[in-house]
Amino acid sequence: MPDTIAVTTRRVPGADAEVISSFFPVPGLGFIPINCFLLHAREPVLVDTGPVVLRDQYVRALEQLIDLEDVRWIYLTHADPDHVGCVRDVLAAAPNAQIVTTFLGLGRLTLYHGVTPDRVYLLNPGQRLSVGDRELRVIEPLTFDAPDTTAFTDSQTGTLFSSDSFGGIVAGPAECAADLSATALRDGVVTWATIDAPWLRHVNRPTFEAATARFRELDPPVVLSSHLPPAHGLLEVLLDHVATARAQPRWVGPDQAALTALLASLAEPGPRDEEAHPQV
Ligand SMILES: [Fe+2]
Ligand SMILES: [Fe+2]
Fold it and tell me: What pTM was estimated for this model as a whole?
């Protein structure tokens, strides 16, 4: 199994934001990018907090970008374990920080993260939040894998923070979505949407097209998905690929026999192992 690739930070042109990312290996598929973002609003906004399993690395990366005390808002697009990693660390370090989530999100956080309502600000699709020099405009994402999920646009740059929507599985690290070949981007986004939103194939065409029209109207110049390198000027392409995913059959993962075979193959010493540890 390939290793998780180290957590890195990078400025996102045109978005007034930094992306903190890693690439999580999925045997047989490739890597899932896991991004969180620091939006440089007058009241700084952390958008998601990385995966639980890499919590320490995401905290360290974030500390290189901002004094955690200065974080004012922690926008959790939803409370899945790949989005709530270092939320408690930031809450502890930033006494004025509030989590932005929905009522359902608060419920999920209460169940397993010990977050109390006084640290939470509830915001629903259709509502807005002023963060000093701009507004976060909350919308329902095109696809999602949890009912508490929201997305938003930044009123100053038009950037869409799309949560799990418009994610893509990649063959390796990439700085931006435009660095992927057209085929790799299509295959990665179609596979991700097919897996992450298995209900998509039940959505009829008029309903799907009405949903995509809302995003065309917004026309975000930058799409920042939690699971794709930053995408500039690619909205139409991404919408096309999600439309392709809608026509795919349900994705079914490896079964126990396949997992047993995979584990056995990993346990077999390869030529390099034998060189490093010769039998005597
Ligand atoms: Fe999710
Ligand atoms: Fe996710």
Answer: 0.93
